[in-house]
Structure formats: structure tokens, C-alpha cells
Amino acid sequence: MAGKNTLTLNEDNFQQQVLEHEGTVLVDFWAEWCPPCKAIGPVIDGLADDYADDVPVGKVDVDANQQLATKYGISSIPALVVFHNGEVVNQLAGYQSKDTLAAAIEGARSQPTV
Questions:
Q1: Active-site residue identified among 2, 34, 52, 89
Q2: Annotation marks residue 86 as catalytic
Q3: Is 92 assigned a catalytic role?
Q4: Between the CA of residue 73 and those of 4, 22, 36, what are the distances in Å?
Q5: 16 domain residue, yes or no
Q6: Is residue 10, in this structure, part of any structural domain at all?
Q7: DSSP assignment of 12-71, as one string?
Q8: Which of 23, 57, 58, 70 could bond 48 through an S-S bridge, CB–CB 3.0 to 4.6 Å?
Q9: Does position 114 have pLDDT exceeding 90, yes or no?
Q10: Is the link from the previous residue into 35 a cis peptide, with omega within 30 of 0?
Q11: pLDDT tens digits for 20-50?
Q12: Residue 104's domain spans which residues?
């Protein structure tokens, strides 16, 4: 279950919410049956709250959205992908700390906007 500021992303809204977004987006590829995915859930929700004003943070259920998982080469979860202006700029696998993910977001945010 996502937090109040965490987007639920799927094959229907991914293009608009992530690829067409000007700026940085953090996407968590996860599954309900994955213990590390559940463990990182509160971290993702915390980042969504921290960045609610300018960096969308969302989750993609890989079981329900297999085409997206395949498109981005997701072979293990959780997989955390940072997009900037619709392009993948960073990808992290496994449980990550809030500080690590915040640093990845900040690194992407510092890239020039086209």
C-alpha cells in the first residue's frame, strides 16, 4: 500500500507520469511477495513525502506491469530507477537507505534541463 504522496504507476499512466515529466522521478519496481520490497516501502513513502512538491515518487508492481519491468530490464527487485526528463539516469538494486536514494535524486536533479 502506497503512502499519500506515493504514485501508483502502471502501463496506462507511466508515459504521462514518468516519461513526459520535466525533471526527476524516482520509480520503485516491486512485488507484493517480495520481503525486501515491503521493507523499503516506508523509505519510498518517506521520500515521496519529502519531495512531494517537486519530485514525483512512484511504485510499479512488476507482476501487474510485466511489460514495464521487461522494458527497463528489471531482473531483481526491489529495483529503484531514477528518471530525469524521461531518461534513465540511475538504477539501484536491492534495499537502499533513504540517504542513498536521496543522493541519487539530488544527483539527477542537478542535471541540466533540456
A1: 34
A2: no
A3: no
A4: 28, 23, 19
A5: no
A6: no
A7: TTHIIIIIT-SSEEEEEEE-TT-HHHHHHHHHHHHHHHHTTTT--EEEEETTT-HHHHHH
A8: 57
A9: no
A10: no
A11: 999 999 999 999 999 999 999 999 999 999 9
A12: 22-109
**CATH number for 103:** 3.40.30.10
Supply 38's cell numbers: 515491503
Q: Sign of the C-alpha dihedral, residues 100, 48, 15, 32?
A: positive
Percent of the chain with pLDDT over 70: 96
DSSP 76: S
Indicate which residue of 25, 37, 81, 102 is catalytic.
37
Report field, pTM of the whole predicted structure over 0.90: yes
The three-class DSSP label of residue 74 is coil
Of the candidates 11, 17, 93, which has an alpha carbon nearest to the alpha carbon of residue 58? 17
Statement: residue 13 has pLDDT above 70: yes
92 located within any domain: yes
